[in-house]
Amino acid sequence: MDEDSKVLMNYIQESANLPRENGELIFKTPWEGRIFAMAVLLLEKGFYPWKVFNGQFVREIGEAERQNPETDVVTAYYQHWVHAFEKVLVDKEVFTEEQLKARTHEFTSGQRHHVC
Q1: Measured between alpha carbons, how far is 25 from 109 in angstroms, rounded to an integer?
Q2: What is the pTM of this model?
């Protein structure tokens, strides 16, 4: 396990911010678990370092809190996670913005039901 993976696993195990119930990670809907898993998988595959993703995630939460201080960060946790993930994928040139928009449209329109 490389250093980024160790840091991520430590974050997952010890983070009070991750939505949990009885100590277990919880996902209210299937897409939350999927986006979490995709971000972890691409980190483990070396597409980006944990510091890059975590930094973007913190910025997403900060921006959301500035725009709407009433927002419950825990309720919107995976919305922030997906926005950070998309930004990192574009910044690291894994996808272009156009490719990301096209793939998102495929899912939201029902044309696509799987990740691959």
Answers
A1: 29
A2: 0.75
